[in-house]
Write the structure tokens for this entry.
Amino acid sequence: MKPYFYHGSINSALRARIASNEPQFQATMRAGVEAFGGNLISCHLLASTGIDPIGFLEFPEDIAARSWNAFYASQEGVLSSTIKRLLDETDLAEMHRLIEQIS
């Protein structure tokens, strides 16, 4: 599984639904991510704004992550969503190898 970060933008109606039932929001997000073979690590409303959802997810491959993001972005109340792959331990080890190679 590869780690990802997502950042969304939602309308006020969805924000109100989330605020009124945070456990349901978490369960819905988890189910959506798992449907694409992923794992929800954490999901919150951005503390600095109290509006934008952010989260850390894992997916087995980029296509699954991007498919989930397209699905999520199409949900009612979601104005936009982006997903970015983060470096994992394998990536960091490869970076270290490359740096040592030229040092």
